[in-house]
């Protein structure tokens, strides 16, 4: 194993590790490979490529794809579903950062000498 590369066990906990082939990812989602390709075309998820050029998906990407699948199954056009999921993901990230900043601000106000 090259120095600095992650140990195989580390990949088990890594939500961003591209562990799933397109076929396996589609099977897990109950979708078709064409659905996954469409999500890529609409820039919702961008799979990594194996050395052989095959698409590989992470658990994080599969969660995003599953949410898009829910919306599409409810009748939302795929383009709109992708946009909704992107906005939901951005909102979640902004809320997480806001909580972190609030926590830091509270620590600095309460951490001073009396």
Q: Which characteristics define this entry?
A:
about 110 residues, mainly alpha, Multidrug-efflux Transporter Regulator, Chain: A, Domain 2, 3 strands, about 60% helix, MerR family transcriptional regulator, MerR-type_HTH_dom, DNA binding, DNA-bd_dom_put_sf
Explain this structure to me?
By secondary structure, this protein is mainly alpha-helical. The protein has one domain: Orthogonal Bundle (Multidrug-efflux Transporter Regulator, Chain: A, Domain 2), CATH 1.10.1660. The chain contains five helices and three strands. A hairpin with a 5-residue loop joins strand 2 and strand 3. 17% of the residues are buried. The mean pLDDT is 87. InterPro entries: DNA-bd_dom_put_sf (IPR009061), MerR-type_HTH_dom (IPR000551).
Q: What is the strand arrangement across the widest sheet?
A: 1-3-2
Summed up, the helix count is 5
Basic shape: globular
The tally of domains stands at 1
Any idea what the CATH architecture is?
Answer: Orthogonal Bundle
Overall mean pLDDT stands at 87
Q: Tell me, what is the CATH class? A: Mainly Alpha
User: What do we call the CATH topology?
Assistant: Multidrug-efflux Transporter Regulator, Chain: A, Domain 2
Q: Report the order of strands and helices.
A: HEHHEEHH
The biggest sheet amounts to:
3 strands, antiparallel
InterPro entries: DNA-bd_dom_put_sf, MerR-type_HTH_dom
GO molecular function, one term: DNA binding
Domain HTH merR-type: 19-87
Protein name: MerR family transcriptional regulator
